[in-house]
């Protein structure tokens, strides 16, 4: 099990997560989700999925404009969270409760994994062979192969039985290619090469 430590930084609670050097910031400004619960949720994810991710930030004042998928906004007019690849950060802008927060957090970690952890052959298999014509676990997953991956990732961590029952092929893909840690499925930087 990974070690966690909490520190205070300029009146803002942050948590440095083990040797991964992953920082949680801004979450002391809300009282819906405890920082310890966020740390426990992140601990559900294999360490190699988080290598290189710099920070998970609660930043409600910086929410971007309207969603690029207005037909899938589900009652909100702007994104509630996002992963910014160039910054290697996940931003959380808004959430209604703990369940929504943890799903969104793992969804955004799924984006990180898709873009920066798994190798191109694995991505291509998802995009070209698995996603087209398949059923998706949520309506939002239907918007693109990348959103389907992120939604499936979140379900694999939070409710793997639901994913296995209804979407067995996607569950098996997550188990065998994404969560296995098999060097053949990972990008070079994760392999240590």
> CATH first level: which class?
Alpha Beta
What does the average pLDDT come to? Answer: 84
Secondary-structure content class: alpha/beta
Q: What general form does the structure show?
A: globular
Biggest β-sheet: strands ordered side by side in the sheet: 1-2-3-4-6-5
Q: Helices and strands, in N-to-C order?
A: EEEHEEEHHHHHH
* CATH architectural arrangement: 3-Layer(aba) Sandwich
Description:
This protein has 193 residues and is of the alpha/beta class. It has one domain (4-191): Collagenase (Catalytic Domain) (3-Layer(aba) Sandwich). Helices cover 39% and strands 15% of the residues. The chain contains seven helices and six strands; from the N terminus they run E-E-E-H-E-E-E-H-H-H-H-H-H. It has helices at residues 35-43, 98-116, 120-130, 145-158, 160-166, 168-178, 188-191; strands spanning 4-9, 12-17, 22-25, 55-58, 81-84, 89-92. Strands 1-2-3-4-6-5 form a six-stranded mixed sheet, with helices on one face. Helix 2 (98-116) crosses helix 4 (145-158) and helix 4 crosses helix 5 (160-166). The chain is globular. The relative contact order is 0.11. Mean pLDDT is 84; it is low at 1-19 and 72-76.
Keywords summarizing the entry:
193 residues; alpha/beta; Collagenase (Catalytic Domain); 6-stranded mixed beta sheet; globular
Quick take:
The protein is globular.
Chart the SSEs and their pairings.
Layout: E1 4-9, E2 12-17, E3 22-25, H1 35-43, E4 55-58, E5 81-84, E6 89-92, H2 98-116, H3 120-130, H4 145-158, H5 160-166, H6 168-178, H7 188-191
């Amino acid at each position: 099990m990974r070690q966690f430590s909490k520190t205070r930084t300029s009146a803002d609670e942050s948590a440095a997560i083990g040797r991964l050097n992953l920082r949680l910031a801004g979450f002391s400004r809300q009282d819906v989700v405890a920082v310890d619960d966020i740390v426990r949720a992140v601990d559900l994810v294999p360490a190699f999925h988080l290598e290189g991710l710099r920070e998970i930030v609660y930043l409600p004042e910086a929410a971007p404009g309207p969603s690029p998928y207005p037909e899938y906004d589900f009652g909100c007019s702007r994104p509630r969270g996002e992963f910014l690849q160039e910054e290697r950060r996940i931003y959380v802008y808004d959430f209604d409760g703990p369940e929504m927060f943890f799903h969104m957090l793992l969804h955004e970690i799924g984006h990180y994994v898709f873009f920066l952890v798994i190798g191109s052959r694995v991505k291509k298999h998802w995009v070209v062979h698995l996603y087209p014509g398949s059923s998706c676990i949520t309506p939002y997953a239907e918007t693109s192969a990348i959103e389907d991956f992120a939604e499936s990732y979140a379900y694999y961590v939070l409710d793997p039985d639901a994913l296995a029952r209804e979407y067995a092929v996607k569950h098996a893909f997550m188990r065998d290619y994404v969560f296995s840690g098999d060097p053949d499925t990972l990008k070079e930087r994760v392999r240590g090469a």
